[in-house]
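Researcher: Next entry in the queue.
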Amino acid sequence: MITVKQIPPELTYDIRHIVLRAGLPRESCFWETDRDAFHLGGWLGVRQVGVATFQPEADPDAPDRPAYRLRGMAVLPDAQGQGVGALMLLSGEDRVRRLGVFQLWCDARIGAAAFYRRYGWEAYGGVYTIPTAGEHYRMKKTLGKTAVCG
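Model: Structure for this entry, 150 residues:
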């Protein structure tokens, strides 16, 4: 059974490190913005296998518009493709919507872009490189006023 619940930032660090920051110091997984964000954890049964962070941050291309940034979304490799990422994404979108914000954006790794597109996210701009994380697309989604799940 898949479950998603809010977690403290400390419960994001191990999965961020394994999936997103392998080879970098563990401290690279501690972000100054964690204290202003909400964090979701995804579980398969009793095992935590995923994390996602949603932080209030305007889209750089629309700085006057309230938005949230999805950052640090990761699912352990052996748990990918089982719906954990989808449930964390949809749960986070619903929470952002309930906060009265209807714009989301992220820096998506090239390999994750198809996943986000399945849930209505759109890439804009060209491919760019983040030195510690490789090639990315900037992606965004405008949320409707009606919840998708829960």
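Model: The mean pLDDT is 88.
Researcher: Noted, moving on.
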